[in-house]
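Listing S7. Sequence submitted for prediction.
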Amino acid sequence: MSPGDLLRFASGALRGHRLRTAMSLLGVAIGVASVILLTSLGEGARLYVTGEFTALGSNLLILIPGKTETTGAAPVFGGAVNDLILEDVEALRRRVPRARRIAPLVVGTTTVRFAERSRDVVVAGTSPDLLEIRHIRLGSGRYLPAGDEARGSRVAVLGAKIATELFPGANPLGEIVRIGDERYRVIGVMLPRGVSLGENLDEVIHIPVASGLKLFNRSGLFRVLVEVAAFEEVDAARKDVLRVLTERHDGVEDVTVLTQDAVLSAFGRILAILTAALAGIAAVSLTVAGVGIMNVMLVSVSERVREIGLLKAVGVTRRQVLAVFLTEATLLSALGGVVGLVAGFGATRALRVVWPAFPAQPPVWAVVGALALSAVVGVAFGSLPARRASRLDPVTALARR
C-alpha cells in the first residue's frame, strides 16, 4: 500500500462517517482556537502595557517616596520616613546635571464647578516640564506657566472631556472654574488623549504643583518624574538622584527610583508568565479533544473488524493496518487544527475591531505550538485504537458478525 493509497483509504473512511468526523474536528478546532485567542489576549496585554510605558519616553526615572526596607510595605502603597518635597526637586535640578526635565506630581480627586455644572475630577498638580515628559499636546491656550514652583498660581489646564462637559459649545479659555473651594482661571485645554496607564487623561485637570499641595492639604509629593538627557546616562543619573536624596534625608535611602527599562522588564515577565498560563489552560481542551479522537477511533475499529480482517486476508501487513488508523487520527487532528487556527485568528480580528486600542495578536510560538500539539494529540491518542486494529487475527475478524 503506497502513501497515496494510504491517504485515500484513510480519507475515504473519514468521509464515510461524516457526523462523527465533524464532531472530532470540532473538538480539536475548539482547543486550537482557545489557544490562539487566549494567548492573543495575553500578548495583547503585554504589548499594550509596554506601549503605554514606551509612550512616556525612553529615558525616564520614576521617583516614589518610601522603600520596602524602610516602610515595611510596598512603596507604591506605603508611606515614607521622609516625604519627597519641592525642596528635594529643586536640589535635584541643581545637583543632577544629567536630568534634562523634572516634573513633581501631586494627585487627588475633588469637584470642579462652572455655573450650574459640576463633576468629580482627578486633579494633577505639576510643573511645565510634564508637558514634554508625558508628550501632552494642547488643543488651545497654553500650559502651566514656568516660575517659582513654591508659590503656585490659580490657573488650570482642562482635559478635553472636562472642557466639553463644563463648556459645551463654548470657549473655556479665560473662564473661572471652581476646583474644590478655590477659583482657577482656565488657560488651556488639552487635545483628546484617551486612557494612558489606566488613567483617562481627558478627565484630568492640571494645576501648578504648589496649588495642588495646598488644595489637597499635603506637604509630600506623590511622584517625581525625571527625564534623563541620554539613554546611556540613565544608570548614572539614577545613582546621582539617590545620592542627592539620601544626603538630604539624613543619610537614609528612603526613595525608590524606578527606571523605565526595569518597569517594562518586570511587566514583560509577569505578562509572559500569564500568557503561558493561559496557553496551558487552553491546551487542556486540546487534550480533551484527543480523548474524543481516541474514543471515536476505538468505535471505528469495533465497527470495521470484518474490513480489517479482509485487508489482512488479501495481504495487508500489520504495520500497514497500524498506519491506516494512525493516518485517520492524524488527519482528524490536523484538519481540526487548521480549522481552529482560522477560527482563532478570526476571533482575534473581531476583538481588534471591537477594541482597536488593544493590540491583540497571537505570538508565533503559540501558533506553531498549537498546530504541533494538535498533530501530536492525534498521533498519541490514535495509537491505542491503531494498535488494537493491527493486532486483530484475520480469521477471527472475518468470522465475527
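Caption to Listing S7: primary sequence and predicted C-alpha cells for the chain studied. Residues 260-303 form the longest helix (44 residues). Confidence is low (pLDDT under 50) at residues 70-78.
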